[in-house]
Write a structure and sequence with these properties.
single chain, alpha/beta, five-stranded parallel sheet, 31% strand, globular, binds flavin-adenine dinucleotide
């Protein structure tokens, strides 16, 4: 009977475990998570922050799912290293858990940078369910009229949206020249910034917090690099997740930066260790460059493919990732795909804009190479197909 161990019980880990049990029902499958809550959908936590969804509504799998599938779920268990020479994973308590095949789906998690004042009450992070509950608890226990949100990426803008729905005025601080610096050109970001301003959210770009002020160890304000000071009741760091790959330091896997490199079967450089989801770097289907996975659906697909290949029946390959990102915030939708931040000079840039919408299309020889859309996004499916299949398109 094969012993499968899965580290991380989210999109990638659960789909991997589930696939293994479908194909090898008599196996032992152990899913380990360092979180205390049952699995949930990270994409929905901003809705929970904004009061649109309850904790129950963001939860994905109840205990009955694991019982029915015959998967053992261990919460609150943190793996600190992998001893691949002896095929065991080691937890913080010193427990050594043996495996025949191992899957790493440890994704990313929140972090707060070490700054003067960053340990004060009211300095929180936003990336997971525990973070969301911490913010909601703080809002319930304190009068919070104004919050500073640090980070103008997806999690920062979604966090600002959630807080604004709770009636909190927000100032969002972004170190880059504009929000969505890794996903959008300046004009697309500016259109969204204008919409955010109408929802009582100020955006300060090209700046960063250097000190957090507190009184009796409770946050009262921040000082920015530019010298600007802001009084505030809450500071939330939503600066993207830290990739959870430290556990691989001991086992010499091939890495791409902090991400684990996998082959088309989601196998790492160790034949008995597979990986998937946000902790991995996989080829982009646009140019075959390695990029970090960052979407729920890609993590699910990679976990399923890894599971199938771990069982070792019919091999299944993963074709690569289309880096398309989207979010619905402040009553509008933002979608971006392809090299819109630094478009190659040979691409023609077609723009359409209005007060609350912006469309950018990158085109070469009538073929779509990328797009950024704010506002009306009804034809994303068509655009996505046009990019992946490189069919001619009249725009
Ligand atoms: C605010 C927000 C909004 C998002 N919105 C969208 C969206 O709209 N659409 C979309 O496609 N994607 C979205 N994403 C991204 C999406 O959530 C991720 O791509 C997806 O969660 C990745 O899944 P994963 O299984 O790889 O890792 P994760 O979801 O990061 O889960 C990894 C799990 O492993 C656990 N873990 C880590 N290290 C250890 C360890 N050493 N021992 C034990 N357990 C460990 C973690 O605690 C966690 O439970 C969003 C993300 C955030 C933060």
């Amino acid at each position: 009977m094969t012993n499968y161990v899965i580290i991380g019980s989210s999109a990638a880990g659960i789909s991997c475990a589930s696939k293994i049990k479908d194909l090898d029902p008599t196996s032992n499958v152990l899913c380990i998570s360092n979180e205390t809550e049952m699995p949930y959908n990270r994409c929905l936590i901003a809705d929970m922050l904004g009061g649109i969804k309850t904790e129950q509504e963001v939860s994905t799998k109840p205990q009955s799912f694991f019982d029915e599938k015959g998967i053992t779920l261990r919460l609150n268990t943190h793996v600190i290293s992998i001893d691949n020479a002896h095929k065991v994973v080691i937890t913080t308590t010193g427990e050594r858990i043996p495996y025949d095949k191992l899957f790493i789906g440890t994704g990313r998690s929140s972090w707060i940078p070490t700054l003067p004042g960053s340990t004060a009450a009211g300095v929180l992070a936003f990336y997971g369910l525990r973070d969301t509950k911490n913010i909601l608890d703080y809002l319930a226990a304190n009068t919070v009229k104004h919050a500073v949100v640090v980070g103008g990426g997806f999690s920062g803008v979604e966090c600002a949206d959630g807080l604004s729905k709770r009636g909190v005025a927000v100032t969002l601080i972004e170190r880059s020249p504009h929000i969505f610096a890794h996903q959008s050109n300046a004009d697309g970001a500016q259109t969204l910034t204008g919409i955010m301003n109408k929802h009582n959210v100020d955006v300060i770009s090209n700046d960063e917090i250097i000190t957090i002020q507190n009184e009796n160890n409770v946050v009262t304000g921040v000082t920015l690099k530019s010298g600007t000071t802001l009084a505030t009741d809450l500071v939330v760091f939503a600066i993207g997740g830290k990739t959870n790959s430290d556990i691989t330091d001991s086992c010499n896997l091939t890495m791409h930066g902090r991400c684990i490199v996998v082959d088309e079967h989601m196998r790492t450089s160790d034949a008995d260790i597979f990986a998937g989801g946000d902790v991995t770097a996989v080829p982009s289907i646009l140019d075959r460059q390695l990029i970090q996975t960052c979407k729920w659906s890609d993590a699910v697909m990679q976990g399923m493919i890894a599971g199938q290949n771990m069982v070792g029946q019919t091999p299944r390959s993963y074709g690569g990732i289309l880096a398309i990102t989207s979010t619905h915030v402040f009553g509008t939708t933002f979608v971006t795909c392809g090299p819109v931040v630094h478009p190659p000079t040979e691409y023609t840039q077609l723009e359409k804009r209005g007060e609350d919408f912006y469309h950018l299309f990158l085109v070469q020889d009538k073929k779509l190479k990328g797009f950024a859309l704010v506002g009306n996004v009804t034809n994303v499916g068509v655009l996505r197909k046009a990019i992946t299949e490189q069919t001619s398109l009249d725009l």
